[in-house]
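step: validate -> pass
step: tokenize input -> pass
step: predict -> running
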Amino acid sequence: MNAGEAEGRGKTERAAGIVGEPLSPATLARIGAVKGFPAPGAGYRPEGPWVQAYRIFVCRGNVESGNEDVGCLRLERRPAGAGDSFKLIADQSVVHNDDTLHTLHAEMTCIRRPFAPLVEWRLTSRCRGASDALIPDLSVDESGRVSNGVVELHRKGGVARWKARGTVTSDWSLFAAIQDLPLGAVPAEAFDFLEGLSLLRTSYRLAYRGTVSWGGGGLEGPLHHFEQWGHGTLPYGFWLDRQRRILVAATLARAYILDDRAEEALRERREGRLQRNRQRNQRRKNG
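step: predict -> pass
step: emit ->
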């Protein structure tokens, strides 16, 4: 297929209602997932204390149907005493198709250096079913630390250890790390990536891809595009405003969209589903 045929095919697919391109702020706006972004709070600094909430959005390939918000991610950055360390708290909730709610709570100590290296962390994972009852067999509690280039993970009385090849960060701490970089400046060295604070991925890199225009509401100026890639996972794109806030992070069919109402919207959606489940169960009980 030559370039002209590929371009024509892309236009035909988009006209037919197929998204036909990777997720980005412009793509998300085209399919109605983004209309604008919240303005930065007074005194916001990437290296200071802050709280950010993201809608977790899934695109299933069509412009007009099948796409939905499935969860939220809340990140909080706090000082951690003297020195260059800081605390990062992550709370992620995702509602699955069977109405199971999966929640993750992580508390991390990181260092304010390129890629926000991890020092230590605690992670809890909980699942609640369609009736909102806890599913004990799916509960997990973990803790870990990085010392002298060794990643140590404690889970259910066992210990796993991996030798890292470079700086060790994670999917959540990388949010804080990218926002703390000067726009356009990216360290050249590779880093290791602890996915979900549980699985070590090695030899990752980060690149600055330049600016893209944005005509939506809530901010001025172009967006700055960073990309992360490495072994074993799909690339991530990050789009930042001039205040260095990550507005969108996207990979394959999932996007994290900065939204002050993300937590409230998830609670409302979850309660609506629980109410429908209760009503359905009552109808079955009544025959």
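step: describe -> The helical segments are 3-15, 25-30, 171-179, 262-286.
step: cleanup -> pass
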